[in-house]
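Morning!

This is the sequence you dropped in the shared folder:
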Amino acid sequence: MPVTHTGSTRRGRWIGVLTGCAVLIAAAGPAAAVRTAQPSGADTSGHDAPAASGLVPAQFTNSKCTPAERRRTLAAEQRRVLTFFKDFLVLRNEADVARLAEPRDGVQFFVLSHAYNSIRGMGLSIINGGEVSGPGKPAMLLYRPSRGAADVTDPDGPDFPYTLAGWGYAGLYAPGQPPSFAGDPGLRCLTKQDWLVHERSVHPSDTWQNIPVPPEEQWHGQALGAVPPTPDECDTPCVGVGHPRLWDLHLFIGNSGVPAVSMLNPGKPIPGFDPGVGVGFFYPQRYPSTGAVPPAAGHGHSGHH
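The structure's back. Tokens below.
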């Protein structure tokens, strides 16, 4: 089964902005269609997506904030994100999804990375495929599906209304070197241990869920995992979209005004397919150069230290 780079297909180029180096993994014959919310009037011919869309450079993170400073800065981050997305706190229909996909101040949320699947504890993930991603302009938005939804894991069936539950940032994985926002008024108090790893994976085109394909390594999180999976690495057929190992940071809206920094949403989990905590999403076993102990699987550090 050949591996087709996203630039070789018109729609594949849109999913490529998810990581900057995602690939379509296809069996013999036509490549699987990539499900995205296309921006109205977008020109998809002849223009490659920005290589770093949805990512921030991996740098050293070293926060020395007090607990009070951390709460104050994270509260500022929540205020600016909710202000920026005030018109998209609830997505009521396809028209709202299309509006979110329109370019605005450098961001453009038009990649449904798992189609209309919801991930348990995270929700519906919509990726920023615009030219700008950074503090206050996240790499992803996370939405809770309708509480009355019959099946939140139907990739073709939206579950409106969707309510914004959180947001996130991402970066290419480098052991012990997550992205840093030093000096930013909202994110400067983050630590290395706030960041989790999204394993190199395939989003299969039949379910659009997630098949993790870990690289060979001596301890969990040692390898870069910089090359997306190839078909012969999969234990089961994996026709779909592949991406490398990534750093992820998830922030969930806090009623107190301070967001929770955590792999999964606090309280009752958002319904969805199994994210594979400990495999599909995990905290590194080690943090090279720090010796720090990672948080317990499935949980992170809230703003309420």
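Headline: The CA atoms of residues 41 and 238 lie 32 Å apart.

More detail when I'm at my desk.
O.
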